[in-house]
């Protein structure tokens, strides 16, 4: 098959119909994809976690409530595990779809529990104060990692898991203290790092966890305050060691998480909000090229980013993914920027091409974009958006032109000036994008934002009613064509997306107040400048009638000349 493919490409290259280069493909093959979604692999992860949990419970049984019946402790722990797995599957179906995510969650919980067990062992071996078993535990370790990488809800689940399972690893008299400290410390870290965008927030979360551990240490008398004034310097020294241990452990947790994030992102193919923010830098090589070679496309991408980000926030989708993916969604146009209307000058290169060839060039920007994204190692979710943002929709403009040319040719055949052999073939599939259709909410939002922004350029004297009608038509046509069937957007969410688009576009396409021509002397009461007069006019202009077609239209603008006449009339009446 490889030889025949080589010969075919060679012939196309000789005819000038191919560059002779193979298109890049993503490295995730069929085997990797299958393993990532295999139920057998997922069950294996759960089995290994259960085995590790059993071993840790067995090793800790000497100091826990299951000292005499370690098997009973293991059985209870496995029952709790079964309940937690059921909760995990019911509450996080999107996370469960990828075994990489499952491994990250339960691998992180296992590592957290191993640290809990390790701290207890070190304290026991060295004969340290028993309270240090709790004060040296990094309660926020796994919850903070999971919250930053997989979202706040997964972080909260992680807090519950490490709190419950950890109770099997600490002495019976410390179970309640451990449970409260783990819940409060973990939840504090998860809520502070919600939608984290800067690494400094991780350190701030560590400080908060340290402070929480310090306060709870005082509350549960792990850090005794009473002996400070009766036992002399020894008590103060122990107080300082315990307080410092609790606080420094929290701070160190934030630092460790910050250091681990890049490694975990690479291994488990997930992206934190911090990395998305770094990807949003407009100085990226591809975006710099777009600014210079395709400025119209660059501006279009910025507007799509604004539209999609606001819409994503409205429905609770990932706004940062929408923003970054929108920046890159049209990078494929860099190969032939002049063939896209936003970059064209006085000449339109499509005038000299057939509709079929024009459609071929337009459609190719999707595959070219994927090729460039892979070459520059962009995030896989960005590559998915590039591939999906047009779905398998029709390039309607050139398809309609092809239909018109076919009608003209058919007319000439009917007149006898041409034969039926001269009739061009018209296949709708040649005018469709290759797909696939959007498969995530973010991809669906960007697909709609892309279409809405492009169509809004054709609006003459845009009004709120025209903008709403345009958005409604585009969304309805996408639904009718089945382009949104696979993205998971509900009708309720689509209504919120439409409202968000309308609000954002109105602010972008609002009408401007007409300024007086230069040279006309316009003065307002008190010597106000013309600019101030027009601003005052805008503020005092009456709004449209409520309940009408243009109920949210912009306020009516009063010309500056009319303001001047009103001022003079008022001054004359006062005199």
Description:
This protein has 575 residues and is mainly α. The protein has two domains: 30-271, Arp2/3 complex 21 kDa subunit ARPC3 (Orthogonal Bundle), CATH 1.10.1760; 281-395 and 432-508, Hypothetical protein af1432 (Orthogonal Bundle), CATH 1.10.3210.10. It has 24 helices and no strands. It has helices at residues 2-14, 30-37, 39-60, 70-91, 93-96, 99-126, 132-135, 141-150, 152-166, 175-192, 200-219, 233-268, 273-279, 285-293, 295-315, 319-328, 355-375, 380-388, 396-415, 441-456, 464-480, 491-508, 530-540, 560-574. Helix 21 packs antiparallel against helix 22. The longest helix is centred in the middle third of the chain and has 36 residues, at 233-268. It is elongated, with a radius of gyration of 33 Å. Mean pLDDT is 83; it is low at 522-561.
**Roughly how much helix do the residues carry, as a percent range?**
55-70%
Overall mean confidence score, pLDDT: 83
Report the end-to-end length measured between terminal Cα atoms: 98 Å
| Rough outline | elongated
- The Rg value, from CA coordinates, equals 33 Å
Specify the biggest β-sheet: none
Number of helices: 24
Low-confidence runs: 522-561
Summarize the structure.
By secondary structure, this protein is an all-alpha fold. It has 24 helices and no strands.
List the helices and strands and how they pair.
Layout: H1 2-14, H2 30-37, H3 39-60, H4 70-91, H5 93-96, H6 99-126, H7 132-135, H8 141-150, H9 152-166, H10 175-192, H11 200-219, H12 233-268, H13 273-279, H14 285-293, H15 295-315, H16 319-328, H17 355-375, H18 380-388, H19 396-415, H20 441-456, H21 464-480, H22 491-508, H23 530-540, H24 560-574
